[in-house]
Amino acid sequence: MAVDYHLHTYRCGHARGRMADYVRIARERGLREIGFADHIPIYFHAPEQRPSGLAMADEELPEYVAEVLALRADNPDLPIRLGIEADYIPGREPQLAVLLERHPFDYVLGSIHYLDGWGFDNPDFLDGYRGRDADVLYHRYFELLQAAARSGLFDSLAHPDLLKKFGCRPRSDITPLYRKTAAVIAAAGICIEVNTAGLWAPVGEIYPHPIFLRFCCGFGVPVTLGSDAHAPERVGSGLPEAIQLLKQAGYREIATFQRRRRTLIPLE
User: Fold this and answer.
1) Alpha helices of the chain — where are they, by DSSP H?
2) What is the DSSP letter of 98?
3) Long-range contact list for 258-267, CB < 8 A, 24+ apart?
4) Integer Cα distance of 64 and 242 in angstroms
5) In this structure, how many other beta carbons lie within 10 angstroms of the beta carbon of residue 76?
6) N or C: which terminus of the chain carries fewer CB neighbours within 10 A?
7) How confident is the model at residue 45 (pLDDT cuts 50, 70, 90)?
8) How many domains does the chain have?
């Protein structure tokens, strides 16, 4: 009876399947609540400069909202939340705020997919790791994650150590960086997401790192759960492992959302 708050749709260009099939699989796997959180249009580039296959187009956002709301109406016994995943881009906060205000989102996932313009989690840009100091990358990534937390735009931070996706690991002890970031997130009053997609990425582990997760628990940072499913068969995948990791870190509750109001429920 877990919750999966990170489901994508075909509109982003790199996921597949009907949204109704995501709901069907959620039912089959006994999920108590789900949330679609597809990629918001790439608001930080002009339309003619936007790469394809990374996020929905501007005109698709109202269609996405309408389809989630229709699925909710058709499934009154299964809470279906309207979420969105939005990249945090320094200096572009006003544009994102305007976009978020236009729709009745239940929650907004903030994510870091770019380090100063480099899409570090995109397999097309793996060459970007060459010649870079992993410690410098980690410090820049977590600097941006802290800024995202402080921005006030987000309810939860998605896959909060995504930088490790392709096996990029810090060379030195970054425990102080984990601690500081957890403290910043706690002060901002938002959540982090425990995201299982890393189990199927080259890194082979859940986001975030257990040490970071323990610091978040210690500072009282709430958590959400998400599979980051990009196909119906991925709905709910890895959630038992995520729940075990949460319990080991000291968590006993997870966060759910409705109209951007947070409720804590027991971790089962």
Assistant:
1) 19-28, 60-74, 93-101, 134-150, 175-188, 210-218, 239-249
2) H
3) 258/79, 258/81, 258/106, 259/104, 259/106, 260/105, 260/106, 260/107, 260/108, 260/155, 262/155, 262/191, 262/222, 264/222, 265/3, 267/243
4) 28
5) 8
6) C
7) confident
8) 1
Decide: 219 and 185 in contact? Cβ < 8 Å: yes
Tell how strand 118-119 and strand 191-195 pair up: unpaired
The token pair that represents 250 in the structure block: 């000291």
With a threshold of 0.90, does the pTM exceed it?
yes
Please state the separation of Cα 175 from the chain's center in Å.
Answer: 22
Query: What phi and psi values does residue 78 have, to the nearest 5 degrees?
Result: -125, 110
Calpha distance 249→219 (Å, rounded): 12
In the chain, the amino acid numbered 151 is S
Instruction: Sort strands 223-226 and 191-195 into parallel, antiparallel or unpaired.
Output: parallel
Q: Shortest CA distance to 205 belongs to which of 162, 170, 175, 173?
A: 162
CATH number at residue 174: 3.20.20.140
Backbone torsion region of residue 36, taken as left when φ is above 0, otherwise alpha when ψ lies between -120 and 50, otherwise beta = beta
Domain housing 104: 3-266
**pLDDT tens, position by position, 160-196:** 999 999 999 999 999 999 999 999 999 999 999 999 9
Task: Compute the CA torsion angle 169, 171, 172, 177 (nearest 10 deg).
Answer: -30
